[in-house]
TrEMBL record, chain B:
Keywords: Cell inner membrane, Cell membrane, Membrane, Transmembrane, Transmembrane helix, Transport. The chain crosses the membrane at residues 23-44, 56-75, 105-127, 134-153, 173-195, 227-246, 281-298, 310-329. This is Autoinducer 2 import system permease protein LsrD. CDD domains: TM_PBP1_transp_AraH_like. It comes from the Bacteria. The keyword DNA-binding does not apply.
Length: 666, 343
């Protein structure tokens, strides 16, 4: 966190830095990064920036064109991130152009005493490929001025100074100290970064790191609580998505939002239709525009065909065409590749690269590291709503990225009791549902807490909903205590002793308009009835018992459950299902959106239930929760099991590796 | 037993607002209104309070109130059945046709109830089996069943039903003030009331109407429940078709035309939310009585049929409008209190 928010105030006296780079480079020692003397590339540029932009974090200052000389953020960085300090400042286009500088940096990092040549090759010439630490594919910035002379470089720097506040050096889009809270939950806190023209910038982070909130603020869906958004250097305040669009920001979501029954051309022109003189829609021009856009994107799509039936990839290309037609200069892509095949991804990337080279600023959100390294020059990492770092992709290994995404202390919030597992309660074999998950097999024993980990959309909830019977499945079997359950029949699962605390409390867990007591007794109203009749008193007594056991804070049991706080609502859901006396409890995101105190209570409850011999399956997107609570962790990725880890084997890194499709490190 | 239901109309209730919300609940309002109308009418309107008029009123109530019993359940689950009046017409036609075929009345009556139930099965299958919207399906079968009724009986009428049956429907207990059919109404209303308000099945109706997904996640068989509601609705419509035919001693294809709107109006007037999840049977019963009593009183005062429609229509609009207004007013009070507390 510290390095992320490093302010100009922390910096060494930058303005004094002598411009003479050749002399300083080799001489500087291990903390080369921190001394102003070895960062001469933009001496003139430097002083100006902190003044014009004091609020933004250090990383946000970097531009693709004049990246080198911003040591402001250096002092803070090495403590947390020794691996990528020096190069971090460089921006894609002129990254390698500091030959004299390099030995020092490299030395500082890896080889305190010798072999400057080697380190140079390692860190200073990423475009040369082979020596790249990560052995990653080449950066797409082939035009990196590897052979830039010092003179050229200085000129560029000078030019950049001149241009301050204008095109080339101005961030196309700047996010400055932006915060956004929803109720008591701080989704985004003091995040700053910048997108420059001609840059593809990745935004990564775990589930719930705040990426989507950032996207929604940029799209004008949410308004920042504090902080500023800047487009081309001037502050903007989006009252709605229309304003963001007018400012040239286009957002492409994972699920395209086309009108299926309109033609491709009509979709592109939506809200912006060309008119004839008689104020009718000019179809000819509409089609011509669409065709021109498709030619420019190099995609062979027929503008007159309806959007229905287009592949997701083609729909995304239509969305991009739509963005281009409104002259978007910032393209924000929120996990656009999640549903695409490798070939489609490559086609999308080709289009995105050409847009980037034409000067658009691209923000790319993905959970696939191979895509980030293939497409992006810089990456901004978020964690828990905060900005962690903005780095050159070339400077980070996948390891580094993951570590920074998850890097936090495992709190002592998880009071897991040691339990010797008993007999097998749940057996799932070869469970498949077309297009959702495939070949899922696992078992859970009494007293065990098994966690299903993975990214949002990996199919975890869908698997457990199929196991419980609220969703159908195509193949496979679900057995409880050796007896096979009927497919798609929650009552059969409930009769076998299964209970599901679902992911979405408001839509699936509770009937918000009904009273607390009715909600608690809903799944077992039949058992409470005498001679088929059910009276308020019986329900109240039953509800009373369980809400008291879970220490639910409530006014009256006859109050609508929607009047309770999120944490207490979750307790009502737990009460509802624990009242059925389950043998197997499935909890899906049991602590989502509830406060820390209640969280700990829920964890304690789960632990003690397991200690009493209950088999527990927990779906959770919170890694600390998974690692803290689970005896075993099953990791899903894109509908398949990619790893099954014991408590001892599991670390944040190994789980994230499996969740993101990387090989599990030994 | 309906205390949660009336309260749920007040989302912003605070701790001590319980009594007030109970007093201002729609059930109470409609009940008081009904009693007021009955009292005022019996003093102000000649012949309103006579036992003869009471019998007529009960006979007028009969079709609306019986069909409203299952209709209340259906609307509570968030669906609707507009085909009930046409089902009534079809069973009336079938009754006449079967009578002409020489079947005994003892065979015909249960058969007609079964025919009504079959109409309900068709609705239920289209709605829950194929997942079609109930509004569209039952508008379709509204036309379909009425059309079939005309196919069966044409424009004619069958009138020669046995006296002992037609007489029972229009008669009173021992020749006194209590109509025979009132017993039927009371028995069925009790059964439906208990099922709706004091059984697990009844509980599930409210859960389905308020949040079908959460109901599904709680192990409630949503589709099956709705299916049986349509079957029951059809069977009751069939029974009412029989009663209607016997009351007027006339089996006609156009019997009960437009009755579905009167039923839906009465149910909504009784405080059932058209969006599902809210409402109680006592409220609906009061709504039916209010509507019928008002129409009866106005008719006794020689108000024309068109003017009666105006009254019915206005009442329906008011019944939908008033709860919203009271909720909004309560919300305002609540907000003002919060604002004052914040100061």
């Amino acid at each position: 966190m510290a390095e992320a928010n490093a302010r100009p105030e922390n910096q060494p006296a930058q303005p004094e830095s002598p411009p003479a780079r050749p002399e300083t480079g080799p001489a500087s020692s291990a903390d080369a990064n921190r001394t102003p003397t070895d960062r001469p590339a933009r001496p003139k540029n430097q002083p100006a920036r902190p003044e014009t932009d004091p609020a933004s974090s250090a990383d946000a200052h970097r531009t693709p064109t004049d990246r080198p000389a911003q040591p402001e953020n250096q002092p803070a960085r090495p403590e947390t991130d020794p691996a990528s300090s020096a190069d971090a400042n460089r921006t894609p286009t002129d990254r390698p152009a500091q030959p004299t500088d390099s030995p020092a940096q490299a030395t500082g990092r890896h080889q305190p005493t010798d072999s400057p040549a080697q380190t140079t090759s390692q860190h200073q010439q990423p475009t040369d490929g082979p020596a790249q630490t990560m052995g990653r594919p080449q950066q797409p910035t082939e035009h990196a001025p590897n052979q830039l002379t010092q003179a050229e470089h200085n000129e560029r720097a000078a030019g950049s100074k001149r241009a301050t506040g204008q095109d080339a050096q101005t961030a196309r889009l700047e996010v400055v100290e932006v915060s956004k809270s929803f109720g008591a939950v701080a989704a985004v806190q003091g995040v700053s970064f910048a997108l420059y023209p001609g840059e593809a910038h990745a935004l990564v982070g775990e589930n719930g790191a705040g990426k989507s909130t950032i996207v929604k603020m940029l799209a004008g869906v949410h308004r920042p609580d504090t902080g500023t958004l800047r487009v081309d250097g001037s502050d903007v305040d989006f009252a709605g998505p229309g304003d963001a669009k007018a400012a040239g920001i286009a957002v492409i979501y994972q699920e395209p939002t086309l009108f299926p029954d309109l033609s491709v051309a009509e979709n592109i022109a939506m809200g912006n239709q060309p008119l004839t003189r008689t104020r009718q829609i000019d179809r000819k021009q509409m089609h011509a525009t669409a065709e021109r856009l498709f030619r420019r994107l190099g995609v062979p799509l027929d503008p007159t065909r309806p959007a229905r039936g287009l592949s997701i990839a083609d729909q995304q290309l239509v969305e991009i065409a739509k963005a281009l037609s409104s002259e978007a200069r910032v393209l924000i892509m929120d996990e656009p590749t999640a549903a695409l095949s490798a070939v489609e991804v490559e086609r999308l990337f080709a289009v995105v690269r050409s847009l980037r080279d034409e000067g658009a600023a691209i923000m790319f959100i993905s959970h696939r590291f191979e895509e980030i390294t293939a497409l992006c020059e810089r990456v901004t990492i978020m964690r828990d709503g905060r900005h962690v770092a903005t780095e050159l992709v070339a400077d980070l290994s996948v390891d580094d990225m993951i570590r920074r995404m998850v890097g936090r202390d495992l709190s002592a919030l998880f009071p897991k009791q040691q339990v010797t597992p008993g007999e097998t309660v749940l057996e799932v074999e070869g469970l498949s549902r077309e297009g959702i998950f495939r070949d899922i097999s696992f078992s859970v024993r009494a007293g065990e807490i098994v966690a299903l980990a993975g990214l949002v959309g990996a199919g975890r909830s869908e698997v457990m909903q199929a196991v419980f019977g609220v969703d159908p499945y195509d193949r496979g079997t679900v057995k409880v205590h050796g007896r096979r359950l009927r497919k798609g029949d929650p009552r059969s699962a409930m009769a076998a002793g299964m209970a599901l605390v679902p992911e979405d409390r408001r839509q699936q867990g509770l009937v918000m308009d009904l009273s607390i007591e009715r909600n608690v007794t809903l799944p077992r109203a039949r058992k409470l009835a005498r001679l088929g009749l059910l009276f308020g008193g019986t329900e109240r007594a039953a509800a009373e018992t369980w809400t008291r056991k879970l220490q639910t804070k409530l006014g009256r049991l006859s109050d609508a459950v929607g009047t309770l706080s999120g944490g207490n609502q979750q307790k009502v859901v737990l009460a509802k299902w624990l009242a059925t006396g389950p043998k197997l409890l499935i909890v899906d995101e049991p602590t989502r959106g509830i406060d820390v105190g209640t969280k700990a209570e829920v964890h304690r409850l789960m632990s003690s239930l397991a200690a009493d011999g209950l088999a527990v399956v927990m779906v959770s997107s919170e890694l600390p929760e998974v690692l803290g609570m689970a005896d075993r962790i099953i990791v899903l990725r894109e509908g398949r099991v990619t790893a099954e880890l014991t408590r001892a084997e599991a670390t944040e890194e190994s789980v994230m590796y499996a969740a993101m499709g990387q090989e599990v490190a030994a | 037993m309906s205390d949660t239901l009336t309260k749920s109309a007040t989302p912003t209730r605070t701790g001590k607002g319980n009594l007030r919300s109970k007093l201002t609940g729609w059930d109470t309002i409609i009940g008081v209104l009904t009693v007021l109308v009955l009292i005022i009418a019996s003093f102000a309107v000649d012949n309103f309070g006579t036992s003869r008029n009471f019998t007529f009123m009960v006979l007028d109530l009969l079709p609306i109130i019986l069909i409203a019993l299952p209709m209340t359940m259906i609307i509570v689950t968030g669906e609707i059945d507009l085909s009930v009046a046409s089902t009534l017409g079809l069973t009336s036609s079938m009754m006449g046709w079967l009578w002409n075929q020489g079947l005994s009345i003892e065979t015909i009556i249960p058969l007609c109830v079964v025919i009504g139930a079959v109409c309900g099965v068709v609705n239920g299958f289209l709605i829950t089996g194929l997942g079609l919207p109930s509004l569209a399906v039952t508008i379709g079968t509204l036309a379909l069943y009425r059309g079939l009724a005309f196919v069966v009986l044409g424009d004619g009428a069958v009138a020669d039903f046995p006296w002992n049956y037609t007489g029972w429907v229009t008669g009173t207990l021992g020749g006194g003030a209590v109509p025979n059919v009132l017993i039927l109404i009371v028995v069925l209303a009790l059964i439906f009331g208990i099922v709706q308000h004091a059984t697990p099945f009844g509980r599930s109706l409210y859960a389905i109407g308020a949040n079908a997904q959460a109901a599904h996640f709680s192990g409630i068989r949503v589709a099956r429940t709705k299916f049986w509601l349509y079957v029951v609705s059809g069977a009751i419509a069939g029974l009412v078709g029989v009663l209607w035919t016997l009351r007027y001693s006339s089996a006609r294809a156009d019997n009960g035309s437009g009755l579905e709107l009167a039923v839906v109006a009465a149910v909504l007037l009784g405080g059932v939310s058209i969006f599902g999840g809210k409402g109680s049977l006592p409220g609906v019963l009061a709504g039916v009585v209010l509507l019928t009593a008002l129409q009866n009183a106005l008719r006794l005062e020689d108000v024309s049929g068109q003017a009666l429609n105006i009254v019915t229509g206005s009442l329906l609009v008011l019944s939908v409008l008033l709860p919203n207004i009271t909720t909004a007013v309560r919300g305002n009070w609540h907000r003002r209190r919060l604002r004052q507390a914040a100061r």
